[in-house]
Design a protein that fits this description.
The protein is α/β, with parallel strands linked by helices. It has 22 helices and 19 strands. Among the domains are: 135 residues, Alpha-Beta Barrel (TIM Barrel), CATH 3.20.20.300; 142 residues, Rossmann fold, CATH 3.40.50. The protein has a six-stranded mixed sheet with strand order 14-19-18-17-15-16, sandwiched between helices. It has a four-stranded parallel sheet with strand order 2-3-4-5, with helices on one face. It is globular and about 80 Å long. The protein starts with a helix and ends in a 17-residue tail after the last helix. The relative contact order is 0.11. Pfam families: Glyco_hydro_3, Glyco_hydro_3_C. InterPro entries: GH, Glyco_hydro_3_AS, Glyco_hydro_3_C, Glyco_hydro_3_C_sf, Glyco_hydro_3_N, Glyco_hydro_3_N_sf, NagZ_Beta-hexosaminidase.
Length: 583
């Protein structure tokens, strides 16, 4: 009996010990703990296997202008291989869909490390796909006030770019266009109100990202309140930090919080953010002092964008061949300054070979640390990995061309183009309540006036759906409409003979102009309908207009939609996305 008790105690003790071991077996002491790999481990390992030359090549993105010339293509392939490039920007306006897919397929396969193949398909004024859907543009989207349409426009652009092998769109424009005299942004912006621009920027960006392509906010810290085109010279934004935070910076800040992939720098000076003065020698030999532009400013790219706004993605410069930079800086010096300021990618360097060689030299001699280069490369490769190109996907060229042909300008995409244009049309003023025109038939005569025949033909094609009779037309050059020059006798006779005059204007900037004179001389006896084809600010220069509409662009859908409003096919629902005194 005593032995049985001892045996029983041994069994119980053994069970307890085994139980304890079972619990502890969740954390085995005789095996190494395994850590689940993450994408950063993958990127770190990728970088470890890259040469310094390959790393530096990732930081350059020159342009490819290709029109189908095989010799030209061979030159670009050699460039990609020689400099081990991280990406290129395409300007493929002359290529049809099959040619473009062939191009992206060929250059992608020329690179050891998969390329960013980028373009700037903004919509509206800036289009790169010959066969793509001609969306009305950002300010038209802003006029709809619809984040749903902003998202859908982004989806359309993203789907069409991806279909042709372009994996990075340098858009959307996040600038708040608060300056009516801005010569370069204008309707490329969603509008002049920071909250509106923020909402539309984020929605559009998300739409693009849904198609698994990279996006890019531009032009940081904001290009909306200048009166100079940075393609032509260096502009200055003289605003306080408080003003910049409430206006220019807001869309960037909100989009960064929403997951922005990349940010493009502006070639503009912002003294409130960095008032550093630099002595430069211009092309004519003149020595002058300028305030450092944002693209070359560490205080702005690193201090504001990285540290203050917490941006962890890719920073890319605007094109370095723009005169705001090229007129004031040696091209190699500009490249090095941009990288030291915090840029990850130099877009369209003026001297690719010189810039590449100098950056390589400075890393080798310790002027720039390899760690600094690795940080940029890590961001670049992380974005490539995010959009799924780093593990090069297999592509069947024939199937890719067939699919792209079906996607570009598909009925679904064109429906979004049409809906956006229609919901954007803004009836700013209709003092005599003539819109929509009713019971218009002969002997009533319609005269359409615009700056060129292409615009007139766009109007006429749609007007005929409502008025299938003879329509008089008159081409009056934009420069003449925007001047106080005397109108020709032919022009006067055409105006005298018309009952309804529809005039499309583009960028009226002179107070003493022909529109004012026409309104003063004929406005009481005739119906005169003014349409701002492009910027909505034209009415500031003919404030005596009784009827004024804005169509926000010169793509076909814009023309069709404004005619539909004038003749009652649709109701105008758009609202001005910018502030215009008196409207």
């Amino acid at each position: 009996m005593k032995n049985f008790k001892i045996f029983a105690l041994l069994i119980i003790s053994l069970s307890i010990i085994l139980n304890c071991c079972t619990v502890k077996s969740k954390y085995p002491i005789n095996k190494k703990e395994t850590k689940k790999p993450n994408r950063y481990d993958f990127i770190d390992n990728y970088i470890k296997n890259m040469t310094l030359e390959e790393k530096i090549g990732q930081m350059f993105m020159p342009a490819v202008y290709y029109d189908g010339d095989k010799t030209q293509l061979e030159k670009y392939i050699k460039m990609i291989k020689d400099y081990k490039l991280g990406g290129v920007i395409l300007f493929p306006e002359s290529l049809d869909t099959a040619q473009l897919v062939n191009l992206t397929y060929t250059i992608q396969n020329a690179s050891k490390i998969p390329l960013f193949i980028s373009t700037d398909q903004e919509g509206g004024l800036v289009y790169r796909l010959k066969d793509g859907t001609k969306l009305p543009g950002n300010m038209a989207i802003g006029a709809t006030r619809s984040t749903d349409l902003a998202y859908k426009n982004g989806q359309v652009v993203g789907s069409e770019l991806k279909a042709v092998g372009i994996n990075w769109n340098l858009a959307p424009v996040a600038d708040v266009n608060s300056n009516p005299a801005n010569p370069i942004i204008g309707i490329r912006s969603f509008g002049g109100f920071p909250d509106l621009v923020s909402r539309m920027t984020v929605a559009y960006m998300k739409g693009e990202q849904s198609q698994n392509i990279a996006t890019c906010l531009k032009h940081f810290p904001g290009h909306g309140d200048v009166n100079i085109d940075s393609h032509l010279g260096l502009g200055i934004v003289n605003k306080s930090i408080d003003q910049l935070e409430k206006n220019e910076l807001k869309p960037f800040s909100d989009a960064i919080k929403a997951g922005a992939d990349a940010v493009m720098s502006a070639h503009l000076s912002f003294p409130a953010l960095d008032d550093t003065k630099i002595e430069v020698k211009t092309s004519d030999g003149t020595i002058k002092k300028i305030t450092i532009p944002a693209t070359l400013s560490q205080k702005i790219l690193t201090g504001v964008l990285r540290e203050k706004l917490g941006f962890k993605g890719v920073i890319i410069t605007d094109a370095m061949n723009m005169r705001a930079i090229s007129d004031n800086f040696n091209p190699i010096d500009a490249t090095i300054r941009a990288i030291k300021a915090g840029a990850d990618i130099v877009l369209m360097p003026v001297d690719l070979q010189g810039s590449y060689d100098e950056l390589l030299k400075q890393v080798k001699n310790g002027s720039i640390s390899e760690y600094r280069i690795d940080q940029s490369v890590k961001r670049i490769l992380s974005l490539k990995n995010k959009i799924g190109i780093l593990n090069r996907p297999t592509i069947n060229l024939e199937k890719a061309i067939d699919m792209a042909t079906k996607i570009l300008s598909s009925n679904t995409n064109k429906a979004i183009e049409r809906e956006t244009a229609q919901k954007a049309i803004t009836l700013v003023r209709d003092n005599k309540h003539i819109i929509p025109l009713k019971n218009i038939s002969p002997p009533k005569k319609i005269l359409v006036v615009a700056g060129n025949k292409v615009r007139i033909d766009q109007y006429i094609a749609q007007i005929r759906k409502y008025y299938p009779y003879h329509i008089d037309t008159l081409v009056v050059d934009d420069a003449v409409l925007n001047s106080n020059k005397e109108l020709s006798n032919t022009t006067k006779a055409a105006i005298n003979g018309a009952d309804i005059i529809i005039i499309g204007t583009v960028d009226i900037t002179e107070k003493d102009n022909q529109i004012v004179k026409i309104l003063n001389n004929y406005g009481r006896e005739k119906i005169i309908i003014l349409i701002a084809i492009k910027n909505p600010y034209d009415i500031m220069y003919y404030p005596n207009a009784e009827t004024y509409l804005v169509q926000y662009g010169w793509n076909r859908a814009n023309y069709e939609a404004v005619v539909d409003v004038i003749f009652g096919g649709i109701k105008p629902t758009g609202r001005l996305p910018v502030n215009i005194p008196g409207c």
